[in-house]
Amino acid sequence: MLSSLPNLLTLSRILAVPLFVLLMWEGNWVTYLLAFGLFCVAGITDYIDGYLARAQGTVSKLGIFLDPIADKIMVVSVIVMLIHNDAIKGWTMLPALVIILREIAVSGLREFLAGLHVSVPVSRLAKWKTALQMVALGALILGQASDRFVPALPVHETGVAALFLAAALTLVTGWDYLRTGLRHMD
Q1: What is this structure's pTM?
Q2: For a Cys-Cys bond, which of 2, 94, 140, 185 suits 159, CB 3.0-4.6 Å?
Q3: Domain tally for the chain?
Q4: Residue 78: predicted pLDDT
Q5: CB under 8 Å to 180, separation ≥6 — which residues?
């Protein structure tokens, strides 16, 4: 099933992470524009891979396993690079930290529950959380370049506001997963 189109799209998001890091490392407006474009393509493939897998009836265990991992790798690596380049600093570190810690905690919880043969499906609210995270991070990436070509637009500020909203949804969905997990712990 590794060669199915949905799984290849998911793998492409994972393989794009080193390119994100490289593009964002220097932090000039051109590389940020390229990183923003790549981030948009990655976000679109996140939607398309799930849609195709369901539409074609090719949903696989590998895809169910890899898709959330690809999302987490992409989100955390972009947050780290935005911190590296001071796009996330001060109080904005708080929602970034909430997002990273929740991703680690939910991954650990899913692994624990998998050992008990308990599946925790992704909720609709968690999908909205991921979408809002992608919008926030995309705006923060674009905000690093926007001063160069559209200084009047508050792109960075919009990204910061969306990051705080995403962190709020992150807490809610993290609590939902934890409540589910606690039912299976002695």
Answers
A1: 0.90
A2: 140
A3: 1
A4: 96
A5: 120
